[in-house]
Amino acid sequence: MGKFVYAFTEGNKDMRNLLGGKGANLAEMTNIGLPVPQGFTITTEACTQYYEDGRQVNDEIMGQVMEFVEKMEKINGKKFGDLKNPLLVSVRSGARASMPGMMDTVLNLGLNEDVVKAMIAGNPDPKFERFVYDSYRRFIQMFSDVVMGVGKKYFEQLIDAMKEAKGVEFDVDLTAADLKELAEQFKVEYKNQLGEDFPVDPIVQLKEAIKAVFRSWDNPRANVYRRDNDIPYSWGTAVSVMPMVFGNLNENSGTGVAFTRDPATGEKKLMGEFLTNAQGEDVVAGVRTPMPIAQMEERFPEAYADFVKVCGLLEDHYRDMQDMEFTVENGKLYMLQCRNGKRTAQAALKIACDLVDEGMISEEQAVLMIDPRNLDTLLHPQFDAAAIKAAKPLGKGLGASPGAACGKVVFTADDAVAWAAKKEKVILVRLETSPEDITGMKAAEGILTVRGGMTSHAAVVARGMGECCVSGCGAIKMDEENKKFELGGKVFHEGDFISIDGTTGNIYEGLIDTVDASISGYFGRIMGWADKYRKLKVRTNADTPTDAKKARELGAEGIGLCRTEHMFFEADRIAAFREMICAESAEEREAALAKIMPYQQADFEKLYVALEGNPVTIRFLDPPLHEFVPSTDEELEALAKAQGKSIDYIKALVAGLHEVNPMMGHRGCRLAVTYPEIAVMQTRAVIRAAINVQKAHPEWTIKPEIMIPLTSELKEYKYVKNFVVATADEEIAAADTKIEYEVGTMIEIPRACLTADEIAKEADFFCFGTNDLTQMTYGFSRDDAGKFLEAYYDAKILENDPFARLDQNGVGKLMDMCLKLGKPVNSAIHCGICGEHGGDPTSVEFCHSIGLDYVSCSPFRVPIARLAAAQAAIKESRN
């Protein structure tokens, strides 16, 4: 069946698809001579096989695992279940993409009652006895939770009760006897919950742990994380099995997590945290607040000096900021993991620029190393400087993930989701977060935790999501049960407002004003490099001069979509538009539209000025007319009075506009076919505005792009285009001027893709409206699909929302076909995309690959699209 297991000595960093990131990097660290406990990795292919075999580890894979267990026993001089020299191992997950905290790990595997007694008998030191029982109770708790699904809370309640009974605050203050009693209580709890004894055979323990790690690839939090980070389900996770080294052995031992550069700011300095007499889970879970890594030098000078050397070696080797987990056992350093560290967007930009300046990487590599999605956080509000200066912090934690957040306090992830669904802005306040909280963390504006450091779960996940987070505010007196906490002498209940600053760690009462973020010089440098290498142009979807101006500041090279209907909803225009709807003849409609035209013209003039001669694509009226009429009796009566019509006439008119399926009804170019006077009025406004702005700014070239929406047939398109061209030419002749314009169509219907060779003969441009094209291709209503898509994710029918990430197999195939049919017929045609997909990095990469000329997206996603376009071009040039 092939090779499913590799020793660390058999792999390297380039095998991450097979060995996962963790396994590949453990192998790489082994190759370069670092102190790594020697074990083996079960491949991602074994994970795929596990699912194909009905969630079972088959005999072939388990046979290979046992072969490598024997090799590991020989290398380490220890044996599973041996009473003289027992081998204890950790079993860890590791997908090819980093997914911190999303999957499962089991530590101290191999312990049972006989092994525990034998270990203690071989070492009379009472401190050693405490260490053994500490490891044993940890193993029972972790195995029960991760492997057998017995919730952590049952064991945490027993620990809390023990600490209370003994009058101590921390786990480390419990004695060997206390921990021995706890281990017994844990086993009783295990039997109460599952009706069977805790497994004692280390091989059974190992097999069950491997299955649990494979199973965790499909747990709810991993599925959510994968969808958000574009990680395919088909990749699977690897499993690394390695001998335990014990940071909880004694006071001369400890564990830590560190970064070679500050993951929040990017500053070049060693940053991390360390706990003495602890295992790695204690640092990451935030159960105890650790000490800064610098203090490790005082406690473990030799191990610290070795670690500093390792940090330099790893950063030089990987040429990127490294995130490392390590353990010190009896003063000796062991490396347990390294990976390219998660970082904030600010830090990512600084690190990339610094690495270029240090001669470590090229400009292209710098562009490739930044996740475009993270740029979002740079463009979002910060606290107003004056307001924050005037505000007095009630308390301070660690600034774990930068940004400003304010909202109502909630205490559970479920409440965060529920309140956010009601459009409430919330801050999730927790003792510490766990991976189960991911949906609540996503829903919240920010996260505040009582425990945990800069490398706790809350900090790492918040940084990855670009969400504001303050962690480790030990001054908070938390009462989760009654949904309240006390800080700075004030009590906060659920629903009270607080503000948190993820940069300084400060916590404030009430709401503090925010301002738009200012963009640093590093951003400008990276964007300059991105623009140097990208081929795709980037435009914006904007309907107002304010949006257009913001998009220009962020690098937009034109407007790819101006939705003219948004301009009709303002109070001074909606009355005239409703008059047009109520009209009983073409003359009445024209009279009503004449009232709107000056407003439309003024809007277009402002847009042309904001764009300073860059292209502006104006889409003609698209929504069905029923969206513009009122619905309440009071509003209908007011409309009847204004129009001089009877209420019965108005009600009958509104009822007549109602459609069973309006998204496929009387909208888009169909409105212009029925009421050509709408297209005529809009054309006059577009052309007159262009003539006026061109006169005022002869240094610019104003060349309007008029886009006819929802075309499905050449004759339909040509019918509307003829009105546009006749009106435009008439206006240009009347003004005795020369101005060029283009007429094109929005490709939103599969039939338009299939007949693109016909439509292209008459169109100056195509622009893919992928929101509607996705809707029409799938037959999903984009307004209702959310009701059932979760079931599709759970059943693995879909991996992500096709309205958020372009469906390359179906919708993408139609787009590619459209270009291949249309371009040979009309070599001058230019083609773009203006659906929301235009700002999604994977969709932008696809648009580059099929040869689009531009993408268009909302203003704040323009930098994301610029960077994604550059990455697509660089990747293509390297293939």
List the helices and strands and how they pair.
Blueprint (H helix, E strand, L loop, with lengths): L4 E3 L8 H16 L8 E3 L1 H9 L6 H18 L12 E7 L9 E5 L3 H9 L4 H22 L4 H15 L9 H19 L7 H15 L3 H10 L7 E7 L10 E6 L11 E6 L3 H6 L5 E2 L3 H4 L1 H18 L3 E8 L2 E9 L4 H13 L5 H6 L13 E2 L1 H6 L4 E2 L1 E4 L2 E7 L2 H9 L4 E5 L7 H6 L2 E4 L7 H9 L2 E4 L5 E3 L4 E4 L2 E4 L3 E5 L4 E4 L4 E2 L5 H13 L3 E5 L3 H9 L5 E5 L7 H12 L3 H26 L4 E4 L13 H11 L3 H11 L11 H6 L1 H21 L8 E4 L5 H21 L7 E6 L2 H5 L1 H4 L5 E4 L1 H9 L7 H9 L16 H15 L4 E4 L7 H10 L3 E4 L4 H17 L1
Parallel strand pairs: 14-15, 15-16, 16-17, 24-25, 24-31, 25-26, 26-27, 27-28, 28-29, 29-30, 30-31
Antiparallel strand pairs: 1-2, 2-5, 3-4, 3-5, 6-7, 6-9, 7-8, 9-10, 11-23, 12-22, 13-17, 14-21, 18-19, 19-20, 21-22
Helix pairs in contact: 5-7, 6-7, 13-19, 19-34, 20-22, 21-22, 22-26, 23-24, 26-27, 33-34
Structural category is: alpha/beta
DSSP helix fraction:
40-55%
Largest pleated sheet: 8 strands, mixed
Q: What's the overall geometry?
A: elongated
Helices, by number, come to: 34
Instruction: Please give the alpha-carbon distance between the first and last residues.
Output: 31 Å
Strand element count: 31
Major sheet: arrangement of strands: 12-22-21-14-15-16-17-13
Indicate the proportion of strand residues: 15-25%
pLDDT averaged over residues: 92
How large, in whole angstroms, is the Cα Rg?
Answer: 32 Å
Oligomer type: single chain
Low-confidence stretches: none
How would you describe this structure in keywords?
8-stranded mixed β-sheet; 879 residues; single chain; 34 helices; alpha/beta; 31 strands; 8-stranded parallel beta barrel
